[in-house]
Every structure is written in C-alpha cells, then in structure tokens.
C-alpha cells in the first residue's frame, strides 16, 4: 500500500506474508486473511512442495526472510512482555496474529493494532474476534501522527511498551520512517523497545539479478520499496532518530534464516534512559 490517500483495499503484502506464515505452519490464524487467489496457489504448493523448498527458491529467499523476521520479532515481543513491557504496539499490524498466538504471554496488557484503515477493516471483517484488551488504531503513517492516534486510543506514554513495526519501513519514504522512530524516541517510556526491519540499499552494480527480481516482485504487488539504507548507515540512522540500537542482524544470519533474501535486516532498538 504505497499511499494512504489512494489505497482502498487491504494491503497485498500483508496478505502475502499471511500466506507465507500459513505455509510455514506456525500461524494457525493466517488462513483467515489469505485471499482466494493466494489460497489457490498455497493449496497447490502445499500438495506439490510440502517442505516449501521450491517455493523458497522461486521467491528467491523472500519467503525465508519473511518467516525468519516473524520468528525473530516473536522472540523480541515475548521477551519484552516477560521483562517489563506493559503495553504492546503493532505498527502496520496487518494480519499479524500475535494477539491471538501470544494471548497467554500478553495477558491483560493493552495491545494497539495500528494500521492503514483499509487493511484494518479487512482484518476486522475476515478475522476472529479480537480480545477485549486489543484496540484498533487507524492511521496513515505518511499523512498522520500515529502518536496522536495512540493517545486517542488510551496508550500510556509513561509505561514501558514494546513496539513491533514489521514489514513496513520499506514501503514508506525515509523521512516518514525517521519521524515515526523519532516520535517513539521522544515520547515512549525509557526502556521501551522497538523491533523493526530495514531493507539494505546496494549500488545497482553490486546487486545480483535475484535481488533486482525480488524488488520487482514487491513493486508488482503495488507496494514498491520506497526506502532502503546502506548497511553501514543503519546504526547511525537509528541513533539519529534518538534510539539506542541493540542488535542489527541480517535475516540470513538470524536463526532459521539460511537462504533468506540477503537485503533484509532486523533491528532491535531501545528508548534511552533520560539524562
Ligand atoms: C507487509 S505488510 C506487514 C503486516 C504485518 N506487520 C505482518 O508482518 O504481518 C505491510 C503493512 O503496512 C501497512 N502500511 C503500508 N503503508 C502504510 C501507510 N502509509 N500507513 C499505514 N499503514 C501502512 C499495510 O496496511 C500493511 O498492514
């Protein structure tokens, strides 16, 4: 979904990542959100390629990167709520099933699902009922201040939170990525954590054919990559946004990430203690 102004239907990439999770077998809620055309492809793949080896090859590591990213951020979320996070914010939540999958770990902590209104509406229409602690926050990141919308939904900026912003930064202009992270850094309680992913920018001469094809696939889903970051500038970018980078890991080096699309990087950052 490139721009909130024109998008009227649910994000195709949100549907695609739900399909990948369904095929991987670790998201029992994903099937609610997979549209008919993707489900048909999924059914064929499940029959012909139950291990997902060919699908991984055809998708040039993208599916592996999507699975690895989700597992990595699962761990971050579970660790954060077990430690000190009192609130959960899923930015660009799409069809993320964590409020159902981790209902026990999250307990009664409020969960804020922040997403584009078109995708949020599709989630409400297609998915199971949300638990009482889940609050829907409709936002267009490129047009509105998500922090104001969180205020309206009852988010408590004084309490430690875990923010998960998965699979979204690459579809937004760099200044929107920066301003979103800056708002978290300025307003969230010290010790709050942010998990997100960034796409690596490489000079096109260094970019093998398979990377170029992967980017074309995303563009074909009408959600082209809008922002990418040189690998050695990622930490500095996070710091300039006011956050402390804790870990920046290539998806292909994260657990289960062997063969993943090499341009996807996973980031954990922390809101610093006030001086
Ligand atoms: C690849 S999906 C990821 C969904 C979810 N985080 C997951 O991993 O399953 C991208 C998400 O970003 C949201 N998104 C993209 N552009 C947006 C914008 N300008 N404002 C709000 N949400 C946006 C889409 O609605 C979609 O839910």
Key attributes of the depicted protein:
single chain, 275 residues, alpha/beta, Rossmann fold, seven-stranded mixed β-sheet, 7 strands, globular, binds S-adenosylmethionine
Total number of helices: 11
The largest sheet has its strands arranged as 3-2-1-4-5-7-6
Whole-angstrom Rg: 18 Å
Got a strand count?
Answer: 7
Provide the helix percentage.
40-55%
Provide the succession of SSEs: HHHHEHHEHEHEHEHHEE
Instruction: Indicate the CATH architecture.
Output: 3-Layer(aba) Sandwich
Strand content: 5-15%
Q: Looking at the structure, what is the overall shape?
A: globular
CA-CA gap between termini: 39 Å
The third-level CATH topology is Rossmann fold
What does this molecule look like?
With 275 residues, this protein is of the alpha/beta class. The protein has one domain (12-270): Vaccinia Virus protein VP39 (Rossmann fold), CATH 3.40.50.150. It has 11 helices and 7 strands. α9 links the parallel β4 (161-165) and β5 (193-199). The relative contact order is 0.16.
């Amino acid at each position: 979904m490139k721009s909130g102004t024109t998008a009227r239907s649910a994000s195709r990439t949100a549907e695609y990542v739900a399909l990948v999770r369904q095929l991987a077998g670790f998201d029992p809620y994903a099937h609610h959100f997979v549209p008919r055309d993707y489900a048909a492809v999924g059914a064929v793949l499940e029959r012909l390629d139950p291990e997902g080896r060919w699908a991984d090859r055809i998708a040039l590591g993208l599916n592996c990167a999507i699975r690895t990213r989700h597992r990595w951020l699962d761990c971050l979320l579970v660790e954060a709520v077990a430690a000190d996070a009192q609130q959960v914010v899923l930015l660009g939540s799409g069809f993320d099933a964590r409020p159902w999958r981790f209902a026990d770990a999250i307990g009664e902590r409020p969960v804020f699902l922040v997403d584009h209104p078109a995708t949020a509406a599709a989630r409400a229409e297609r998915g199971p009922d949300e638990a009482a602690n889940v609050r829907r926050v409709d936002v267009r990141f490129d047009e509105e201040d998500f922090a104001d919308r969180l205020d309206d939904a009852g988010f408590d900026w004084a309490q430690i939170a875990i923010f998960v912003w998965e699979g979204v930064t690459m579809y937004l202009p760099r200044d929107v990525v920066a301003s979103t992270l800056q708002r978290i850094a300025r307003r969230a309680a010290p010790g709050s954590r942010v998990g997100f992913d960034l796409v690596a920018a490489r000079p096109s001469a260094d970019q093998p054919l398979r990377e170029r094809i992967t980017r074309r696939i995303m563009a074909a889903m009408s959600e082209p990559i809008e922002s990418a970051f040189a690998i050695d500038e990622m930490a500095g970018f996070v710091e300039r946004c006011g956050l402390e980078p804790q870990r920046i890991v290539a998806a292909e080096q994260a657990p289960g990430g062997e063969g993943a699309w090499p341009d996807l990087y996973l980031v954990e950052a922390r809101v610093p203690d006030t001086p």
